[in-house]
Design a protein that fits this description.
Elements: H1 2-31, E1 43-45, H2 46-53, H3 57-65, E2 72-75, E3 78-82, H4 83-91, H5 97-103
Antiparallel strand pairs: 1-3, 2-3
Length: 104
């Protein structure tokens, strides 16, 4: 019963995440901030990821520092996340970098 509930919640979360990503991408395309019209950006900012996950940007920084959120790269003082890696992580097909380090 718990597994079924977990699967149901996971599916609902993934649907919500996919919808939020599509909405954010279409908004960016309308604003002209996407690299090519209609194409999703390959990398997203901390603020975009925080909006997507509906958490505070400080939470994103903390989880990145702890190695929980994968796909992040520090560029000088900024962090960018590989969009596909983050989505795969949300789907449970990719683990955070801290988890990967423990397995080695």
């Amino acid at each position: 019963m718990t597994d079924l509930l977990d699967d149901t919640l996971r599916k609902e979360l993934l649907t919500a995440v996919d919808s939020a990503v599509e909405e954010a991408l279409s908004r960016r395309a309308e604003e002209g901030t996407s690299a090519s019209p209609g194409a999703p950006p390959e990398f997203i900012t901390v603020d975009e990821l925080a909006d997507l996950l509906r958490v505070n940007r400080k939470t994103i920084y903390e989880q990145f520092q702890k190695g929980i959120i994968p796909g992040g790269r520090r560029l000088s003082r900024n962090i960018r996340f590989h969009r596909r890696t983050v989505i795969d992580w949300m789907r449970g097909t990719v683990r955070g970098s801290r988890s990967q380090r423990r397995e080695k």
